[in-house]
């Protein structure tokens, strides 16, 4: 197929099959500590996502993979983590702000893989005292290095107004539109990037 055919929307049979298959999007919980809030936020995002029907969404909890700190072992423990990432077309990172950045556990999980992040799309849902915005901005720089195309729409949740006692998640209704917009962008970009992998 030539460049002009692609530009004007003509597709081969293979491309038509690829665009009709549902994408697999992992909702990655970015914290591993006891008492963390990320499972509540992740389940909320998944509930919204599942109603859309535009992709297969699943929670991916980095705590389940028991990754050691990169460089402290031979790295073989990263096999299941890399296999999981290889089967995903895109991501939604659930990010909490720790000292103006992402958690050490999330950074370690990002570093434990390389090519399995490449040419995929990601959205970010963050929370913290300032909505987790500073952590999200740090994550965007890491995404760029890992060839992850992070989308613009970014739902930010406040520990003060979206959590009761900073621990029970009660999101304001106004976030629903942002989450849906972010998910739409992730699916669009992940669909486009699948053609270059």
Task: Give a verbal description of the structure.
The structure is a single chain. The chain has 197 residues and is of the alpha/beta class. The protein is built from seven helices and eight strands, in the order H-H-E-H-E-H-E-H-E-H-E-E-E-E-H. It has one domain (22-194): 3-Layer(aba) Sandwich (Rossmann fold). It has helices spanning 3-7, 13-20, 38-52, 79-86, 104-111, 133-145, 175-194; strands at 23-29, 55-61, 90-96, 120-128, 148-150, 156-158, 163-164, 168-169. The strands form two sheets. Strands 1, 2, 3, 4, 5 and 6 form a six-stranded parallel beta sheet that branches. Helix 3 packs across helix 7 (175-194).
List keywords for this structure.
197 residues; alpha/beta; Rossmann fold
What about the largest sheet? 6 strands, parallel
SSE run: HHEHEHEHEHEEEEH
Mean pLDDT: 92
Indicate the structural class: alpha/beta
Radius of gyration: 17 Å
Short recap of the structure:
This protein has 197 residues and is an alpha/beta fold. Helices cover 39% and strands 20% of the residues. The protein has one domain (22-194): Flavodoxin domain (Rossmann fold), CATH 3.40.50.360.
Describe the protein's topology.
Blueprint lengths: L2 H5 L5 H8 L2 E7 L8 H15 L2 E7 L17 H8 L3 E7 L7 H8 L8 E9 L4 H13 L2 E3 L5 E3 L4 E2 L3 E2 L5 H20 L3
Parallel strand pairs: 1-2, 1-3, 3-4, 4-5, 4-6
Antiparallel strand pairs: 7-8
Helix pairs in contact: 3-7
């Amino acid at each position: 197929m030539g460049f002009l055919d692609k530009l004007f929307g003509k597709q081969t049979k293979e491309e038509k099959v690829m665009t009709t298959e549902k994408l697999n999007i992992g909702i990655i919980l970015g914290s591993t500590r006891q008492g963390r809030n990320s499972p509540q936020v992740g389940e909320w995002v998944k509930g919204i996502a599942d109603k859309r029907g535009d992709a297969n969404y699943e929670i991916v909890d980095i705590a389940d993979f028991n990754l050691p700190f990169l460089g402290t072992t031979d790295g073989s423990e990263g096999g299941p983590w890399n296999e999981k990432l290889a089967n995903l077309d895109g991501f939604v990172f659930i990010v909490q702000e720790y000292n103006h950045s992402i958690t050490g556990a999330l950074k370690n999980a990002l570093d434990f893989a390389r090519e399995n992040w490449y040419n995929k799309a990601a959205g970010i849902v963050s929370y913290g005292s300032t909505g987790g915005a500073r952590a999200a901005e740090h994550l965007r720089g890491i995404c760029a290095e890992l060839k992850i195309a992070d989308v613009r729409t970014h739902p930010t949740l406040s520990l003060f107004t979206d959590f009761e006692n900073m621990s029970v998640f009660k999101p304001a209704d106004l976030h629903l539109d942002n989450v849906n917009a972010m998910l739409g962008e992730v699916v669009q970009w992940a669909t486009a990037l699948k053609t270059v992998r």
